[in-house]
Design goal:
The chain has 119 residues and is an alpha+beta fold. It has one domain: Ribosomal Protein S5, domain 2, CATH 3.30.230.10. Helix content is 35%, strand content 20%. It is built from three helices and four strands, in the order αβββαβα. A four-stranded mixed β-sheet has the order 1-2-4-3, sandwiched between helices. Strand 3, helix 2 and strand 4 form a beta-alpha-beta unit. It starts with 12 loop residues before the first helix and ends in a 9-residue tail after the last helix.
């Protein structure tokens, strides 16, 4: 149920480049989120990026795993019809799961891809 299938990921370089060029960005201390709207009938796809400024491969992989886990657990709370690219920043390697989750969810809300809660 909470898996990250290939249909829900950006796989090709040109898909990432399209989101970078035509999408809008939302930034905070831990990450940058690029958002490109698509058809509302299509599922939301996401890609995860960490640059070499973060550190060695071990640290970059840890940051990517952290971002993937936050997305994996909250993927059904996001609206359909978007391409997202989540880029980890240097401070991400110094925080734990709780702070990373709070920060990434804040990015989703500010980018307006978070579903409104029915109350």
């Amino acid at each position: 149920m909470y898996e990250l299938n290939k249909e829900k990921r950006l796989c090709k370089n040109r898909e990432y480049q399209l989101v970078y060029r035509h999408g809008r960005s939302v930034v905070n201390r831990l990450a940058v989120l690029y958002v490109l709207p698509r058809s509302p009938k299509q599922p939301t796809r996401i890609g995860f990026v960490t640059g070499k400024k973060i550190g060695c491969a071990v640290e970059r992989n840890r940051c990517r795993r952290l971002m993937k886990e936050v997305y994996r657990l909250h993927q059904y709370e996001l609206k359909d019809g978007y391409d997202l690219v989540l880029i980890g920043r240097g401070y991400l390697k110094q925080v734990g799961y709780q702070e990373a989750e709070r920060s990434i969810l804040q990015l989703f809300r500010r980018a307006n891809v978070w579903k409104k809660r029915c109350e």
